Amino acid sequence: MTKKVLFALAACNCGSDRAKQLRAEAVAKGLNPNVRINNVEVIAAARVGAEPVNYVSNIYRQSNKSGAEEPESPLREIRHEGALP
């Protein structure tokens, strides 16, 4: 699954305007707006909540035919506990 697809899924879940705002905020915080893991998802979790992060991660895992895990994210505990820091 490509980065563009992951961002499109996130935009479907939280809205395209909100996704653009989150990417812009990532730039302002010195993060890469073109990378979801450890970058835009950190901003999304803080501003929107864990649900959009969970949504994209769940789809990624379900669609990954090779069975490989999604790259490790520091938000994994947030996703499992359902709480923000």
Summarize the structure.
The chain has 85 residues and is mainly α. It has one domain (3-81). The protein has helices at 3-14, 16-28, 36-47, 50-63, 76-81.
In terms of topology, how is this protein built?
Layout: H1 3-14, H2 16-28, H3 36-47, H4 50-63, H5 76-81
Structure description:
This protein has 85 residues and is an all-alpha fold. The chain has one domain (3-81). The protein contains 5 helices and no strands. The chain has helices spanning 3-14, 16-28, 36-47, 50-63, 76-81.
- Beta-strand level of the residues, as a percent range? under 5%
Tell me, rounded to a whole number, the average pLDDT: 77
Number of distinct helices: 5
The count of domains is 1
Q: Radius of gyration in whole Å, from Cα?
A: 12 Å
Helical fraction equals 55-70%
The helix-strand sequence is HHHHH
Uncertain runs: 77-85
